[in-house]
Amino acid sequence: MPVKKPEEEKELFYEYLRQHGLKKTHQKDLILETFLGNEGHMSVEDIYSLVKRKDKKVGIVTVFRTLKSLTASGIAKEITLGDGLTRFEHCYHHPLHHHIICSQCHKVIEFLSPELERVQQSIVARYRFQPLHQRIQIFGVCRDCREQRPCQEGTKADTGKVFARDALRMALAMQEQGVQFYRTAVAHNQDPAGRAVFEAMMLEQESHAQELERELEQMHRQEKGLESAPVFLHFDTCELQQLVPCLQGNLVGGEMLLDARRALEVAMQLENRAAGFFQDYADKFEDTEGKRVFQRFAERAIKHHSAISRRAESMVAAR
């Protein structure tokens, strides 16, 4: 999943400079590249220290002003972690998110919860507010500090890629739900033609699940620290389970007798629900890698739904 984010961000920054009559300089380029090349929550001093290794003539005021310009151009976002410092984090093509902050070692865990977002939206709607921005910060003491252990700081992974990883994990979890559903249908359906339909669907679901697993493994290989990064997107697996059609209503005398046409209708129902669910998720976010994972999964479900529908229509026409 190639992304031209650095070049897009550079052009976005240069456009900001042009619009505000500011000069494009070597020092600003160096500060921009340093910021883009480092993840996490970095203070002016952090960036200044890194930039000084490459150009000792760069002043801290230039770093500060450039970071402010990056914020104004939509590339960076300011954040405070309760220690009196203003820090900057990436926000272009990164999902909006919240923070859990250790008040002792200042370790930060980023997270996003659709359930929490829904609660916030419901409350805001109740009071007829038009939300402009939001930020949730939870301060506490991490496990390392409570147990008086050295803080375990791993490699900082790109938030956008962690989001894409979790979106892919979510799609894989949905695919596994589908595999289990069709496996159950195959085991209980007594109609041979209908069982054959379910077997074919199960094999398709298994094949796609394997594709997603390979894609996830490739993401882990390409991005250092991605596999061990904390969960960013916290989703409820019960939501995925609710997308699966209930087969209990198809029992006749304790047995399930779904012919091929009815089996195809059930498969269409599953694909239609999955497409709607993941498209709704995609619509929640700005352009990010995670959004594109949701869109891709939704589009695949729509295409699969159409293919199943054509098969069902051909069966009706053949009668």
Describe the SSE topology.
Elements: H1 5-19, H2 26-36, E1 42-43, H3 44-52, H4 60-72, E2 76-80, E3 86-90, E4 98-102, E5 108-111, H5 114-126, E6 137-140, H6 143-146, H7 159-188, H8 192-222, H9 237-241, E7 251-252, E8 255-256, H10 260-283, H11 289-317
Parallel strand pairs: 4-6
Antiparallel strand pairs: 1-3, 2-3, 4-5, 7-8
Helix pairs in contact: 2-3, 2-4, 3-4, 7-8, 7-11, 8-10, 10-11
Summarize the structure.
With 319 residues, this protein is mostly helical. It is built from eleven helices and eight strands.
Explain what you see.
This protein is mostly helical. The protein has three domains: 1-92, Winged helix-like DNA-binding domain superfamily/Winged helix DNA-binding domain (Arc Repressor Mutant, subunit A); 94-153, Dna Ligase, domain 1; 159-317, Ferritin, CATH 1.20.1260. It is built from eleven helices and eight strands. The strands form three sheets. A three-stranded antiparallel sheet has the order 1-3-2. A three-stranded mixed sheet has the order 5-4-6, with no helix packed on it. It has a two-stranded antiparallel sheet with strand order 7-8. A hairpin with a 5-residue loop joins strand 2 and strand 3. Helix 8 (192-222) packs parallel to helix 10 and helix 10 (260-283) packs antiparallel against helix 11. The longest helix has 31 residues, at 192-222. The protein is elongated.
